[in-house]
Amino acid sequence: MYHFKSLKTRLTFCFLVVTIISVVTAVAAVSIIRAVGIKKREFTKLRTARDLKVNQLESWLEERLGDLSVVAEDNAICALAGDREIILAAGCNNYISKPVEPRKLNLIIRKWIYKNVE
Q1: What is the value of pTM for the model shown?
Q2: Residue 64 phi, psi dihedral angles, 5° rounding
Q3: Which of the residues 2, 79, 87, 90 could staple to 97 if both were Cys, CB 3.0 to 4.6 A apart?
Q4: How many domains does the chain have?
């Protein structure tokens, strides 16, 4: 170890070394704890953002599937009596049976396009 002229100097040096080591250890521990806390908070934010995007995508897909159900409800070759009421009661917005008249289909599509624009 170091050679000091007096015992007082040697004790002061030892005291300073022990104090500095404990302070450095404490600072390192606090830094590590804070870094872990920051990582956890940021990970929670990222997970929340991911969950929000997943929910948005799921609702968008449900809307698109709803749109598809309106188109796909009447795939039968011919319409039966009461089909219109059943389809509308199931939640579809409109009904058109086969054979589809282009003019009638055009009117229905325009009605819903302009209704959604307003």
Answers
A1: 0.40
A2: -65, -40
A3: 79
A4: 1
